[in-house]
Amino acid sequence: MPRSVNVVAARARRKKLMKLTRGQFGRRKNVWTVAKNSWEKGQTYAYRDRRAKKRNFRALWIQRINAGSRMHGMSYSVFMGKLHGKGIEINRKVLADLAMNNPEAFKAIAMAVK
Q1: What domains, with CATH codes, occur in the chain?
Q2: The predicted structure's pLDDT at residue 1
């Protein structure tokens, strides 16, 4: 009796992955083993960089808050320490946005903590 294989499912699985690698360069888009490895590596990078993105944005917000607070004669650490000391609950994302796009509001906060 001949060997029975589920070609329909196997082809569908390969076709689905090949569709995901469409647009990549060279053999990554049309050779099964290369495409599979490329896609798997891409998934690991995506997983890693979803976490790195959070770190990068926090660092960016800190730099912007530091630049804004130094305009008002304080370092970042002093500014944040006084902010928490006064009990003002504003997160870094909002503070960075205010420092960039609304300097008057940031100045009001800086004067409130001085």
Answers
A1: 8-113 (1.10.1900.20)
A2: 79
